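User: Can you fold this complex?
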Amino acid sequence: MAAQTDYLKIKYVAIDTDPENTVFLSRQCTVYRPEEFRALKKIEVSAGTKKLLATLVVTDDHTITAPDELGVGAPAFRRLGLAEGASVQIAQATPPRSLDAVRRKIGGEVMSAEDIKAIITDVATHRYSPMEIAAYLIASASFTTTDELLATTRAMAESGTEIKWNAPLIVDKHCIGGIPGNRTSMIVAPIVAAHGLKMPKTSSRAITSPSGTADTMEVLANVALSIDDMKRVVGLENACLAWGGHVNLSPADDVLITVERPLAIDTREQMVASILSKKLAAGSTHIVLDIPVGPTAKVRSQGDAVRLRKLMEYVSAEIGLVIDVVFTDGAQPVGRGVGPVLEARDVMAVLTNQPDAPADLRARSLLLAGRVLDFDPALRGGAGRVRAQELLDSGEALAAMERIIEAQGRAASPACAGELTAEIVATCDGVVGAMDCFRIARIARLAGAPTDKGAGIDLFKKIGDHARKGDPLYRIHSCFASDFEFAKAMAHEDSGVMVDGTAVRGSIKE
Amino acid sequence: MAAQTDYLKIKYVAIDTDPENTVFLSRQCTVYRPEEFRALKKIEVSAGTKKLLATLVVTDDHTITAPDELGVGAPAFRRLGLAEGASVQIAQATPPRSLDAVRRKIGGEVMSAEDIKAIITDVATHRYSPMEIAAYLIASASFTTTDELLATTRAMAESGTEIKWNAPLIVDKHCIGGIPGNRTSMIVAPIVAAHGLKMPKTSSRAITSPSGTADTMEVLANVALSIDDMKRVVGLENACLAWGGHVNLSPADDVLITVERPLAIDTREQMVASILSKKLAAGSTHIVLDIPVGPTAKVRSQGDAVRLRKLMEYVSAEIGLVIDVVFTDGAQPVGRGVGPVLEARDVMAVLTNQPDAPADLRARSLLLAGRVLDFDPALRGGAGRVRAQELLDSGEALAAMERIIEAQGRAASPACAGELTAEIVATCDGVVGAMDCFRIARIARLAGAPTDKGAGIDLFKKIGDHARKGDPLYRIHSCFASDFEFAKAMAHEDSGVMVDGTAVRGSIKE
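Assistant: Here's the predicted assembly.
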């Protein structure tokens, strides 16, 4: 019915509202009247068969968007893939039909697998606004049946790329996160590769933490691998350490997380669906899952850990994944460094068997690598741990890591630790009694990690160590003065370290 | 701790993201690094003691925001109240503390009155993002205790202006909405005023409907009254018909509604809190509440109507309001016109006692005015209805309306009905059996109402009327060709009127 004269010319607007699509319409628009589109705010932009949902914003500035134009913000412009000046039409977007299922869920009903499939598909294709995603997440957080959880995990795995491997045994190792410096994957993968199992590891970048495995690996090598790159590297070297965001595994999860994080929604069910959907999409068959338990970790009690383990085991079995859940000590950071460069230094110290390499990072990596190797039917039961240590001590794991780095593409010149430094020192004699993982992560992040590879924290004392008044507990590294000031201010207020039963406060040495 | 050099100059950006505050930072910013602010996205802008929360958007266009500037979108610029070039600082906003209560609510806990007060205050001051509002609303939609509802109603009333009147009896009449053309307030208010009770009526503008009482009254008079204007008009004429949005009653409700509407969250509890908080803030003491019941109305069964009535009565009693709930026929639109000009014509036809004035609008207005007059202790019980008719028939109500219009400020030149017209005609002989309020409202809205005062629908047949094939059922009025096409297309697909048991489709005469 629409007249043929209702076309707008698209214009690129250099405004980044990622991950949301935003378009701009002039209040003096000659083709449409912006008031018509205010109530719902989401509009559908179409050019032939190409369609895109976007949030409409009205502008009074003709240099941003002229009356005969549709301004298109950076993410929408990228997704639309049209040249400036191309003709498009706009219409009020009909809300996604799957929202009806969300409304029924809010009303207390259970969702069918078809409902969930439709919701997850709409979420992955950016048809839901943040408030609609929040509605779905909160309704699900109040109760989720195991059938709903299974359907969610499957739908999320199917929402993006699904990698197929020509091998019966594809192993993986995953940690639920929350412990700074816990970079065991970068040691486990080369050990497993050296043994001969296939471990195509994908990892995330940090969202709220000071570094993700992908950020730390990037200090040493290129991590933005395509699926073909991954297959080539794994074909050559048995393992890779790639950034998962680049290969579009479970994209629905990437969208959901943009709402889960700010709302701090962190249910067992969402964690299970998020982790297992990505493993399923990555083509894994056997997984070792590391659940750190500690007072400032994500899982804070043994009871919670067991409940999470049972749910992981149940869903894994239903979707055909073999899982081995390992509880580890989540009381403090692992290793010494927190932040990409400092963590990469620790990893290489372990792989090169340096005498001062962090013992806890080494021990934990061997434990997890051993459990992964135990999946190998050729090994005697329980022999994985010893085999892992052989491969590490002999330098075979290091050689595997060097080959993986070469195959992925070695980083041109390694980044260095940030040159602005300050030390937090003990204010009394005593034993280090506790470390707040969450606070230490925040200080490292304020210092600039992971944006600045060299920023972060270098720990000199760990729980159980003796400290004398004036002994440095850790050093902050920053690359920029403003970050440095923010990090110091937070560490000054509370360092996150307890000595002799008291939080160390107000003690910075520059 | 922050250095004294971290100031940005503010620059007005003519982008309207109302009701949300948006600010723009250059990716090449020389003072802050935008990456630092991405994770949370909400930032706090401060200039001395002035503080404002806003969503941060990154731009690559120096003409929008230069590297030493902070671009400030229209709503934030208005709220900040500073001149361009003024110096501001920015910092990651700490999420509102009251979100902890929302998280506890999601976890199944009951909120205290203090929790609710803190949440509503933060919502009213724009500290919540849409996703955070959605989280609060959905968590509340799954269960709300009566104590929570009471605390919510009180907190919402206290979130903005509270009007005080020097009179023991301040009456009001309110309809829960959903029925096109239901403009009884514009007849009830002058009747009540002519009798001598005080009725300071505030009404909303349409959000998703084709007209609100404020939109229709605006055809005749200025409705953007300040509190002082309202007091002056009511002092002179006993009643006013003002736009509530202008006097900031229950502003938290105005924010919540921006999320409730798109999510179609419509619980009894939210309706009760929304309506009664506004009445409490407006200083009303006695209210007649009109609940239309019908298959396409907001309340669709007698059971639902009774549950809503009881909840309204309970909360009213607790907060000290006298309420009289009236169930009315919500099966079809009231009167003939749908849209501001056409509705105003119907209202004036009733007030001037024209023989062809819509009988249903007249009867319903007399019913409701009678119930309001029954609040007058000076009248014999049940005498209100007769008294209302006397005042209408004698022309005293019309005279009161003319004085109210003069006191508010008569509209300069009355708008006319839109000149683009098309008629929907019956496609067979038969009786009009049903009318879809929701669909008729949507067609009228597409035709341009309420933005174009003259746009809308003029109904010629109502339920029970006989129609012969070719008889016009209603006429669409538009002011712009594109709206006209959209409205006709929708009416063509399904007119929203049933004749002889079948929906009338595909029959338009121009």
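Chain B has four domains: 8-92, 99-143, 171-408, 420-509. Chain B has 17 helices and 21 strands.
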